[in-house]
Design brief:
The chain is an all-alpha fold. The chain contains six helices and no strands. Keywords: Electron transport, Heme, Iron, Metal-binding, Signal, Transport.
Amino acid sequence: MRLKSLALAVAIGCLGMSVAVAQEPQVVRQEQMKAIGQSMGALGAIAKGEKPYDAAVVQTALEGISTNARAFPDQFPAGTETGAETEAAPAIWENMADFAAKAEKLGAAADTLLASVPADQAGVGAAMKTLGATCGDCHETYRVKR
């Protein structure tokens, strides 16, 4: 009986993994952008004094931004211009090299900040300005305004 339960659990787990792996790129990129937004939100709360400075939170947020920014361009294959209420502008597919360079710039900015994690609220505020400008530059060009 225990073996049957284990086999069933493994089978269910594999099905769940296949669903996660088979997600549409539009959904994956939306999740990545939400993760970046959550990381920016955590940094913003510290910068505004809404949350106390916490080096671990800052580091985790910067790591999340770096990882997601670099993985982001891979979620824009041809044929994914529409669907899942995407806010991706057609300009992405027209100039993928520039889009990827902007994502890399955000990842690099996060890595630079990780090399010397901001040590206080003021440092996090300065980091937010750097990251925010990079985010805004990409959004201005490659995000559909709703």
